[in-house]
Design a protein that fits this description.
Family (chains A, B, C): Belongs to the glycosyl hydrolase 42 family.
Strand content of chain A: 15-25%
CATH class of the largest domain in chain A: Alpha Beta
CATH superfamily of the largest domain in chain A: Glycosidases
Pfam family, one (chains A, B, C): Glyco_hydro_42
Catalytic activity (chains A, B, C): Hydrolysis of terminal non-reducing beta-D-galactose residues in beta-D-galactosides
Helix content of chain A: 25-40%
Largest interface: A-B, 62 and 51 residues
Oligomer: homotrimer
Keywords (chains A, B, C): Glycosidase, Hydrolase, Metal-binding, Zinc
Organism (chains A, B, C): Shewanella youngdeokensis
Largest sheet of chain A: 11 strands, mixed
Number of domains of chain A: 3
Structural class of chain A: alpha/beta
Distance between the termini of chain A: 25 Å
Radius of gyration of chain A: 25 Å
Shape of chain A: globular
Chain lengths: ~650, ~650, ~650
């Protein structure tokens, strides 16, 4: 299914009908509306104007379009801010209030905003909950975007004190848990607790972690309450939320998604690539500047599917240049189609494009749409149109993605711990995880992102690039697993309160592989060292642990000084260093072979994924590539020779 | 004419007479005084001390020197700040008040400061307005320096609200004009309007533009009122202001200059080059580190002449190393003379050196003077002395600069629009304009900087490196012009309220060249691509527009993918990309030939400009260079072989 | 002697006895305790708990260990902050209060904190002053760490106003001294004086210097008062303080040390190297990333000995990776021993390791100890154990270091002047001083760091890398000296109030060498130029002065333009530029030969120093090196071939 994001309030009413008709003709089925329209719906406190919205919905409905309605809580109007100035959040890096004038100017801990946000949600849900053309709801918009999960307000401080009281019961328990004896940081009462910001030097990591958990809980609570309201008044409609990249929510995404019907994702491969790969040298970056890295979109798709615990939507798909990255190239011709097919291949049920028409005014006027602001058809129109036609070539609805045999264990907690305690500036949680993911994808294997709570029995290879905190339950599950388990450096090294484990790293994982981390060092990124694996030289970078091997543990790879860098014990491997991608590919390839997981040698920049009966092949290269002959079946789309930026779909025998 | 900046209040009275005598002997005619002397003139509120100033003026006058008197409003004294603390401006990036202790610590929107600044101006103008030795006045000092045009104060907010009311009349008009419906940014009342600062994320570009226009208006209003006071009490004296580089005033410079008799400019080629070219690799930068780029001073001179609508002064000329850049080299021997002659050649009527004697104390003690602080003669003395002698070689006063056949269209509005909406980090308005200017200067052609209100009929080639907003009046004038018109990327793309034009870029310019900008992308600076022009390869960089050509439009240059990069229709060209300097030189050369504008092939680092009957040739190179034989005439100064950093003046036949 | 830093409050009481026993077995004699234990000692205002501390001391004493007790004033508890919120300091760069949650959250100008800090010091001193197992006291902890010398609080402003009044007597004297006439910065009353922070642009350098002197005086006053209290109640105990690198205290270290018995130093060669050399290219940095630069630790040791006016302690010696640098490598095997011996060789009386056991919680959990947090023995254990054994090979106590024949003149005033007035971004006081020091050390000569008040007659070569302010007394002493005197650029150029000297640089030093600094320029670091000395080419970098030579002055080295770069007159040399290390080595080598100072040609990365009858040789290289045959004597430790990271001790004949 295809859809689009639409803002009737930006356009004259007389335009709406033609828009709706063209949407239908373009094969779009879903139209998302309303997420920033609070001031139009309620121009003054308690004075509602629904006439325009009723009409807009009716106009769309008349063309058979289904509407996804949003709560408009990402943009409280000025009159509301003036009424309750404590809605505004406070910058945790400067202590300065973040003012009105853009979006997301609200504090998750403001009791006034909580009340008001739920009020407007209820008003909307009551009015439109049973509307026959409204198929589902989106909560708020891109929660946490612009670093809004954390606030340094008084409201946040008071809420944090309360949260601490609920978590720890007594102040001595908290002091003990955080290790406040260190540097005389002991509190005598919960009301003394500060936010871990603006201190003279680094605050207690346990304090920081608690603040992150608290902030995440605030977001989830706000969001869950909104879901509850929608469900109460809009029965039998789906509720979803459009996530930004999971690393950026600073929220426990599994918890945030829990009460949703499914997760939606806003996919902007070029803008995000510009920022994520900004330190990459031009010769490496330039080939992907108009495509994104071949594994970058699918990384988010697979994560979204994981958090969604099933299929997902792309709620916003970049249709052309955007306006918000450091540099904003246009997609290569064909890429909007490629990303769309890639989303479906990795488990999307629907791809909606953002936005129908480029808006001529305000902050996003340089953001492309399917149509240009003069109503002409932009480049994306033709690719969406091609999608409409090609979707008829496959049997819909698509079956579920094939059950992956490989899983990556992920979670906000791991991210927070390693962001709070980088230990070396060059340790970046997201880059570490992405490197592991990309290595697996280059081998052509499907990857699931799972939490520690997931069923491990489904997998033959389970990889935890970074899992500093492990529980006894998780270890017990690992012991039952038939998979080979791979743990990256730092795994098992920390308690849930961000202390060192008693028995040295990898802590409880010593039950899986009897090794001890004797010391840990971090290294300048430009001072990497040789690592040897099966007579080949790779590199050890940035993070390096010294490990002691227990009886029966074998050395898989060695540092330059011949100490063990990768160790293995039965079906568990421990990688004690950050390594180059080439090592990961090589080692995973060997483990897959051992575990009976099929890998495939793909041309550079070609990626393969299977969904149901179909194999999808994507060519991210600017030159033609041949699909390996081992991939046999009927070409539903394309042929064995992939043009640049082209897609092939093969119906498997 | 030559002059100097002098601070009698910094030196014992007994020194003054010798100073004045030496000034006269050095051939100086003008002495600027008083611009920071408020606390000396009015040590306590309402208690004036003019005795010292009277005597200083008399001492200078006794040697036949003419005094340029300043209003001392750039440095309100501490007692005044303590009396009216709201004088202090507020940093728009941090919200923190910018305190006393340096200079320019005042808010253009403070009603108290307005009153006080006009009061002291009136006091001075009344006392010295008819003094026979005071030939003219300088208002304030380097208005806007240190980013003081914009303030985040309450006073600024209230003044901005009033300004909005006056501009838009009704709040709905404002909402409409800014597109506030986007993100529910609608206001219900002018009193709700915030400054576009310290928000959660990017504020509305229209809001930002309004704030810049408002801030500029505040500066102009303050300045105009001061001019009015001076004119009232100081009849028949010129009034000028010493401008910093025009890009840095963040003010409509044409408006700021309008009521002045002429513009003055403070010329610091080395300090400014150190900052402007700081990202330039050493091998490119080092040859110019003690000279400045060959087009850098003249860029400011030509701009000053443009804003002045005629000749200008250099009020402060760097005489040696300064103290405020990241690195502060000394000028190569001869450069002070070269810059001085270059100023005259580009339309200066007077060059004043900053400062007479290096001051031993406070912020600028490392700033060179004509004399050292021990009263010995610094390097500049000998070059000024040479200027004094050489000025007798030419007929004074110099005639006007030759009427240029080439104009560059410039204006604060274009700068603001492209600073507010960079779209790519690598788009820099000033660098774009400088590149166009430098290309033209390397062809040896004279260049005028004009506003869109200028008479276009004077020119054969009119270049708008960046003109996002165009009016119907301007287009009509273009249609009448006999010049070839060249527009750089972004031209015509925006409405005056910083929205997209309805009919795609270049908007109204489509009446001159029927093309449409279909999409715009920005690119990392290290990812440039090939552009082909007349079988030669150049480069397309940073900014690239996709254009559709209407009937009759020809492709002048092509992108790597063969799409049009430069288009032409009759006498209008549109350059859709940021290109390398080499392309601009090549294309402008061809257009000049076509338009009958003489160009000349000059050795690298040699520049030529004509004023009246004289051709001036400047050698910025560290080696000797030959003047092209085609330049015939009588050598008033120098010869056909230019020594390093030397000047030649040729009286044309 | 060896010692250790221990935190009984971090561990269960039942652990203490074993810890104490192991300390004794490891050869440790001293145990430092208590410096962050305020909240444990006084959990509520006026409620003391000494039981645990009594027991901890008793447990240590029972094993024959001597305790160094600390005042816990670096970490005021939360209840105290809540009682007196004005204890918190204010960030001078942002104006924001620096909150509770880490350490050093106090303002040296807070009268409340002064009272409270002295109170708790007195309480402790009274209780433990005569304890037989407490041999000495440490004041506070790492005073000034985390940029806490300067505060922008109201308390600081008021104290500064008072300080100014005491310094200058009348406001006119202050105005005159600072040159406040410049930019109308004159004050009418001391109560008007602002801190030199958060102004529109650069504040008056004289104002800044006064503020630095004031801030230093505040620290010294606070510290001296604490010493006085300790001495009153703890007779016959030593009092010391653990200094951070002297450049970072922003305090007059000679004054701060004056009333101590000796100085202690906290030595973290790897963390500090990571930060100090962060701009060094990898190929230069990598060889030292696990050792530190060969001259880096000794630079601090020699400075500490200088400030101590005799021997010193290392109170905290890095035993493994730390947690606070940008990257935190482990020391190469052997380096903990090497650094320890190096400390002794340069004048340490005791080396204490930080810390006994890695703490599992809070901010420093990733900081290594002698033992790991699981109580196993970390790498350092074995090296300390080796130290214990090897110390028996030499005769204890070690004699004094040999009297150096070479001195470097240093002082906070020079640092402040050149930090306030960098003039070029690439001038860095510490790097300049380190370069001079390192050049001398590579020649194998011993170096003393002395203040201008020191006896100069002890030296044959006296080097002032940067001494902008000189007094007549100092010059008179220089005139008496038999040493050759070398002055780096900027020397003698400033008055004590940071103005230019009347007679041009080097000011009073013209009595030693009749030259004049005509102009000064600063240059981009990547634009260095050739400098010629004895037909060899070296480089002139970053800072370059033009000098005029008086009669009899000879040119030692020349710039690329043949102007003098280094000048000499009798026994005084003036280096007018920042040069490369190679020039310094070459020139110092020649001067040493002339002055009869023995130099020695050492292999790269090998260093030599003598203490009493012993010569110590250190190999910082990753390969074996031979000790020069000229070094004859009995090998007490090691042999003529030094293994990587090894030490040799030779008993001289």
């Amino acid at each position: 299914m295809l859809g689009v994001c639409y803002y009737p309030e930006h356009w004259p009413e007389k335009q709406w009908q033609q828009d709706a008709q063209e949407m239908r003709e373009l094969g779009l089925k879903y139209v998302r509306i309303g997420e920033f329209a609070w001031s139009k719906i309620e121009p003054k406190a308690g004075k509602y104007d629904f006439a325009w919205l009723d009409k807009a919905i009716a106009t769309l409905a008349a063309e058979g379009l289904q509407v996804v309605m949003c709560t408009p809580t990402a943009t409280p109007p000025k009159w509301l801010i003036d009424q309750y100035p404590d809605i505004l959040p406070v910058d945790i890096n400067t202590g300065v209030t973040r003012g009105f004038g853009s979006r997301r100017h609200y504090d998750f801990s403001s009791p006034n905003y909580f009340t008001q946000a739920m009020r407007i949600s209820k008003v909307l849900a009551k009015r439109y909950g049973n509307h026959p053309s409204i198929c589902g709801w989106q909560t708020d918009n891109e929660i946490a975007c612009h670093d809004t999960t954390h606030s340094g307000s008084l409201a946040a401080k008071h809420a944090f004190q309360l949260w601490c009281q609920q978590q720890y019961g007594s102040i001595n328990t908290l002091n003990q848990a955080w290790g406040n004896i260190f540097w005389s940081m002991e509190y005598q009462d919960f009301s003394q607790i500060e936010l871990p910001i603006l201190a003279v030097t680094e605050t207690n990591p346990a304090h920081q972690l608690a603040y992150r958990r608290f902030s995440s809980d605030q977001v989830v609570h706000f969001h869950d309450e909104m879901i509850k309201i929608i469900r109460q008044y809009a029965p039998n409609r789906f509720v979803t939320h459009n996530f930004i990249p999971l690393v950026d929510t600073q929220t426990d995404n599994f918890a945030l998604a829990k009460n949703l019907d499914f997760v939606s994702y806003d996919n902007y491969p070029l803008g995000r690539s510009d920022m994520f790969f900004k330190h990459m040298p031009a010769e490496q970056y330039k080939p992907y500047m108009r495509t994104g890295h071949p594994d970058f979109s699918s990384y988010s798709f697979d994560q979204s599917r994981g958090v969604s615990q099933g299929n997902f939507w792309v709620m916003e798909q970049q249709p052309g240049p955007v306006n918000w990255a450091h540099h904003n190239p246009r997609p290569e011709k064909g890429m909007v189609r490629l990303w769309s097919w890639q989303a479906f291949a990795h488990g999307a049920d629907c791809v909606c494009y953002f936005r129908w028409r480029q808006v001529p005014f305000a902050q996003e006027q340089m953001h492309a749409g399917i149509k240009r602001n003069d109503n002409s058809k932009a480049a994306a129109w033709h690719e969406v149109s091609q999608m409409r036609d090609e979707l008829t070539q496959v049997q819909l609805p698509l079956e579920q993605p094939v059950q992956a045999k490989v899983a990556i264990v992920t979670g906000a907690h791991s991210q927070w711990v390693t962001e709070i305690e980088r230990q070396g500036d060059s340790y970046n949680h997201q880059r570490v995880e992405f490197a592991y993911y990309s290595a697996l994808r280059q081998l052509g294997v499907a990857v699931d992102f799972i939490s520690v709570d997931h069923d491990l029995s489904l997998y033959q290879l389970i990889v935890a690039p970074c899992l500093p905190v492990v529980s006894a339950e998780f270890v017990a599950k690992c012991q039952q697993a038939t998979a080979h388990l791979v743990f990256g450096p730092r795994s098992g090294a920390k308690t849930p309160e961000l202390s060192l484990v008693d028995n040295l790293g990898p802590g409880l994982l010593q039950q899986l592989i009897p090794i001890k981390v004797l010391s840990t060092e971090t290294i300048r990124p430009d001072c990497s060292e040789v690592m040897t694996y099966q007579t080949q030289q790779f590199s050890s970078q940035c993070w390096r642990e010294e490990i002691e091997l227990g009886a029966g543990v074998t050395t898989v790879a060695q540092y330059h000084d011949l100490l063990p860098a990768v160790a293995r014990y039965n079906n568990t491997s421990y990688i004690a260093s950050l390594t180059c991608d080439e090592f990961l590919i090589s080692y995973f390839s060997s483990l897959c072979a051992e575990q009976g997981i099929n890998t495939i040698t793909l041309p550079k920049d070609v990626r393969l994924v299977q969904r149901g009966q179909y194999a999808f092949v994507f060519n991210y290269a600017g030159k033609a590539n041949s699909i390996p002959a081992t991939l046999s079946g009927e070409f539903v789309l394309g042929s064995a020779t992939l043009a640049p930026y082209d897609v092939a779909i093969i119906k498997l025998p």
